[in-house]
Amino acid sequence: MSDYTPPKVWTWNRESGGRFASINRPIAGPTHEKDLPVGKHPIQLYSLATPNGVKVTIMLEELLALGHAGAEYDAWIINIGEGNQFSSGYVAVNPNSKIPVMVDHSTPEPTRVFESGSILLYLAEKFDAFLPKEHHKRTETMNWLFWQMASAPYLGGGFGHFYAYAPVKLEYPIDRFAMEVKRQLDVLDRNLAEREYMAGDEYTIADMAIWPWYGALSKGLLYEAGEFLSVHEYKNVIRWTDMLMERKAVQRGRMVNRSWGEPSSQLIERHDASDFDTKTQDKVEAAQS
Length: 289
Known about the structure:
The protein is of the alpha+beta class. It contains 11 helices and 4 strands, in the order βαβαββααααααααα. Strands 2-1-3-4 form a 4-stranded mixed β-sheet, covered by helices on one side. Helix 1 links the parallel strand 1 (43-47) and strand 2. The model has no long low-confidence stretch (mean pLDDT 95).
């Protein structure tokens, strides 16, 4: 704890420290001029395999698995550590400079779609998939989709930041956000005790939105905090997490725009379905050696 007293007027301390400090600033807009690349497919995705990025690549791979050829896509990696999200081209399609962003070139004029929840909803409506038509089921899906959008900032920007990334460990914020994250896990666990998927008996965009964050958390893969949060207690979340991980489209989606972990799990850019067989990082490295 400290005796910090906020000043009358806050000023930006560029030397705030902590992991990812370089990507945070109190102003918007581009820092440099650079156009975004455009590939051969109607859908262009600019992203990174963080939980928010994985939501969208899972959705696209699930659509392709259903036979929606129009969901073919190019996935370009955006290295947020290097500030790719602050290029003029990126800011033009996402003024918020966060990943992911998608541009749909199949419309009369290219359509930009930013915010991961908006992208999931856009794709679900465009391809009439993973969003129930019946009123109550659709509403329940939307309930959980927006639950994720509202809840995950407390997990990532709150708990994750103070537990894993902040330059100093402070008891109060870690306790405060650990309590909230465990409450969220309990919300999910109680819901999944009564149903197979988040919104009922159908696999929907709600599952795709929640799984990359809370599925990874329940398996101890986020922030190395599994033991600290006693994630083994949430049996229903773990059951649901394991069930989704068995889906081939989920396995593929998790690999796209990934640049860390086992080389065989990294498909840094994805421009064709065959890339999963030929361009994972282990194969790229083998070809270069």
